[in-house]
């Protein structure tokens, strides 16, 4: 059976996901068979595994860092918020229903058998499991029947490292306060602390570290500097949205829906030096971009209404009328059609038909069954600005609840092959310089991004020679190796290995 170690945090966004990924990479490099585990994840950024099941994207990143295929066992419960008080509950990759926060809180202990079965299956396959907590173990209103922090640590008998975020200030109070609010048995599980996101001279920090250890009698296992790496992570959401690249040759505006999902679709664009990606929330921020992208969303109709009310819909339509590039993915693609129909009340309490943006010759009908599948795709012979992408290939996945009817079946954008059964179909459409499809990960293909760069630069009358094709997988491997270097240099790995070996003794 596998040994374990758990990374908990003093708060959300303390860096648990990335620390977990970095530690997994170090252990993998040292020859161990390792995998991540998070019993319950709340995120709109999900992923479809090769067997068609849905899991949180953070655990996918961690699996990649560990060098293993993402498996829904690594994230048995995924909560996808549908509004401020409720979520779609996904258990073992399948939708179990939509529940209010109060209902889920009452029922969450029902999922303990599924959590422990998933963990035990992984434990038989790997040497070490690195577990990630959620939020903070000191959220005393949520401690009853906890299944994701100290409650999970107890169920798996895992030793704990507690991480605090010094960049937001008050890290010593964060850590001391968290330890004080734990029960005695829980405090004994904390074998070390981590100071994360530190900027400056560590020598100046030493007196504080000494005092911290004196107060809580728990060693500091590392001080990790603030760093910038291109790592897919739910906690990086706010930083990604605030990022700017003013000097880039191509300006891409991604509409930042209130319920934006799968924002990692745009990571391959963000890492290109020719491209500046910015996230736009209102008409005043729109500007005059070269490309507009409508991303996925957990609530297509409500986010379409939001665009309609704040003036962004008019901006996008005007942008398209100038023969400039617009691309929609999943929910964003559905919005761009002529109508969205909801006969089963999937997104609303009553059946409704909503007018779309009228940019593409399609109409979408919501259906109760969610489509979840991994696919291989190839661009068909298309016209408009992206005609140079004809024949380019990529991999991706579908995750949506709508069926789209094509008014112009002769304008299919992609040839699609389902990886599970090799069944072939078509997806997406185009009209002029407006394109849309259901495929998440469409920009992961290096040739597709290079072709996009070339096409947009050519439309601006700029030099288009020598456009580099980036190997996305190799690039991500380099990022994980750099992350491992940071962990090795700034954490006491000898002590970490001792904690793993001794467990909760």
Question: Describe it for me?
Answer:
With 505 residues, the chain is α/β, with parallel strands linked by helices. Helix content is 33%, strand content 29%. The strands form five sheets. Strands 13, 15, 16, 18, 19, 20, 21, 22, 23, 24 and 25 form an eleven-stranded mixed β-sheet that branches. A six-stranded parallel β-sheet has the order 2-9-1-10-11-12, with helices on both faces. Helix 6 packs parallel to helix 8. The protein is globular and about 70 Å long.
- Write down the overall mean pLDDT: 93
CA-to-CA gap between the ends?
Answer: 17 Å
Strand content: 25-35%
Unreliable parts = none
Give me the count of strands. 25
Q: Using only CA atoms, what is the Rg?
A: 23 Å
Secondary structure class reads alpha/beta
Shape: globular
- Total DSSP helices: 17
List the helices and strands and how they pair.
Blueprint: E1 3-9, H1 16-29, E2 34-37, E3 40-42, E4 46-48, E5 54-56, H2 57-66, E6 77-81, E7 86-91, E8 94-100, H3 101-107, H4 112-123, E9 128-132, H5 150-156, E10 160-165, H6 171-181, H7 184-189, E11 190-198, H8 202-216, E12 220-225, H9 237-242, E13 250-255, E14 260-261, H10 267-270, E15 275-280, H11 283-286, E16 291-294, E17 296-297, H12 300-310, H13 312-321, E18 325-329, H14 331-335, E19 339-342, E20 352-355, E21 362-379, E22 393-406, E23 412-418, E24 424-431, E25 434-437, H15 446-459, H16 472-490, H17 493-502
Helix pairs in contact: 1-2, 1-16, 6-8
What is this structure, in a nutshell?
The protein is α/β, with parallel strands linked by helices. It has 17 helices and 25 strands. α1 (16-29) runs parallel beside α2 (57-66), α1 (16-29) crosses α16 (472-490) and α6 (171-181) packs parallel to α8 (202-216).
């Amino acid at each position: 059976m596998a040994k374990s170690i758990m990374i908990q945090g003093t708060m959300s966004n303390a860096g648990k996901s990335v620390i977990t990924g970095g530690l997994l990479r170090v252990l993998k490099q040292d020859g161990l068979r390792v995998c991540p585990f998070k019993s319950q994840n709340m995120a709109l950024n999900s992923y479809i595994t090769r067997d068609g099941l849905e899991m949180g994207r953070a655990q996918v990143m961690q699996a990649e860092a560990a060098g293993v295929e993402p498996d829904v066992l690594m994230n048995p419960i995924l909560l996808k918020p549908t509004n401020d008080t409720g979520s779609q509950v996904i258990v073992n990759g399948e939708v179990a229903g939509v529940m209010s926060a109060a209902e889920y809180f009452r029922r969450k202990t029902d999922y303990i058998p599924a959590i422990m079965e998933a963990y035990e299956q992984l434990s038989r396959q790997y040497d070490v499991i690195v577990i990630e907590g959620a939020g903070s173990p000191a959220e005393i209103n949520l401690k009853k029947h906890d299944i994701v922090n100290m409650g999970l640590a107890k169920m798996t008998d895992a030793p704990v490292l507690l991480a605090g975020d010094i960049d937001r200030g008050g890290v010593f109070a964060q850590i001391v306060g968290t330890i004080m609010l734990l029960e005695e048995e829980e405090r004994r599980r904390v074998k070390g602390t981590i100071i994360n996101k530190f900027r400056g001279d560590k020598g100046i920090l030493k007196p504080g570290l000494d005092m911290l250890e004196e107060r809580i009698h728990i060693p500091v296992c590392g001080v990790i500097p603030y760093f910038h790496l291109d790592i897919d992570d739910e906690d990086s959401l706010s930083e990604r949205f605030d990022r700017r690249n003013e000097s880039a040759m191509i300006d891409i505006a991604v509409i930042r829906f209130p319920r934006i999902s799968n924002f990692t679709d745009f990571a391959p664009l963000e890492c290109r030096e020719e491209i500046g990606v910015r996230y736009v929330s209102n008409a005043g921020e729109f500007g005059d971009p070269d490309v507009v992208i409508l991303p996925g969303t957990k609530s297509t109709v409500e986010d379409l209404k939001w665009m309609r009310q704040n003036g962004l819909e008019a901006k996008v339509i005007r942008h398209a009328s100038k023969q400039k590039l617009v691309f929609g993915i999943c929910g964003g693609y559905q919005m761009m059609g002529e109508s969205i129909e909801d006969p089963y009340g999937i997104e609303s309490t009553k059946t409704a038909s909503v007018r779309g943006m009228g940019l593409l010759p399609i109409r979408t009908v919501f259906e109760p069954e969610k489509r979840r599948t991994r696919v291989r795709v190839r661009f068909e012979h298309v016209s408009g600005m992206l005609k140079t992408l004809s024949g380019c290939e990529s991999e991706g996945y579908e995750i949506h609840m709508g069926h789209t009817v094509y008014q112009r079946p002769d304008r299919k954008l992609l040839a699609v092959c389902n990886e599970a059964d090799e069944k072939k179909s078509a997806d997406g459409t185009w009209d002029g310089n407006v394109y849309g499809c259901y495929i998440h990960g469409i920009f992961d293909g290096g040739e597709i991004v290079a072709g996009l760069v070339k096409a947009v630069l050519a439309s601006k009358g700029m030099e288009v020679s020598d456009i580099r094709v980036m190997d996305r997988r190799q690039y991500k491997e380099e990022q994980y190796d750099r992350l491992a270097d940071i962990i090795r240099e700034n954490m006491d790995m000898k002590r970490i290995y001792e904690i793993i070996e001794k467990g909760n003794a």
